[in-house]
Amino acid sequence: MSPTSKVLTAYYSYADYLTWPEDERWELIDGVSYNMTPSPTPKHQEILGELFRILANWLTGNRCRVYMAPFDVRLGESEQPDSVIDKVVQPDISVVCDPRKIDERGCLGTPDMIIEILSPSTFKKDLGIKLGLYENSGVKEYWVVHPLDETVLVFRLQNGQYGKPTVYSAPDEVPVELFEDFIIPLESVFRRI
């Protein structure tokens, strides 16, 4: 039974999450459930597709892999049972460089890079709760894409903290610091169709 039919202030684990209907999208952050509706806009999907294409093409032959939502990222340790894991997110894009973190249910552990594309319903969560979650979990690069402003905020982990983001906008090219000599041209990401 999904959280819509229960008290939304209840504490949930990944074991609970696995019992919810597959046609519903939820995230868990510290045991609190967050509904992932409404569906993304066409502009959101175009930006997501272009970022995924650029990353997937560049990572061909690399041990790192890129995944797009819906893709469960369980921010827990490999020895933790499902009933203990209380952080499950579905980032728009996840880059994972340790193949041992990937299993049949998604990623168990911290991705190296996460990209979230803002929407009116996720704005506060992506720049508030998730920012702290990703920082505390050790995500090395966290990108927040603002489709309407056509900007990208890039948070890079240094000494366990993000600090102030670097802000990019077209025609900037954003360096992906995880990989030497890899840049993403924002004109391509925000191109008009």
TrEMBL record:
Q: Does the keyword Cytoplasm apply?
A: no
Residue span(s) of domain Putative restriction endonuclease? 15-186
**Residue intervals passing through the bilayer:** none
InterPro entries from the UniProt entry? Nuclease_put_TT1808 (IPR012296), Restrct_endonuc-II-like (IPR011335), Uma2 (IPR008538)
Query: Pfam families this protein is in?
Result: Uma2
Task: Output the Gene Ontology terms for molecular function.
Answer: endonuclease activity
- Supply the CDD domains for this chain: DUF820-like
Q: Which domain of life is it from?
A: Bacteria
**Keywords of this entry:** Endonuclease, Hydrolase, Nuclease
Query: Which named protein is this?
Result: Endonuclease, Uma2 family (Restriction endonuclease fold)
Q: Could you tell me which species this protein originates from?
A: Desulfosporosinus lacus DSM 15449
Q: What is the lineage of its organism?
A: Bacteria, Bacillati, Bacillota, Clostridia, Eubacteriales
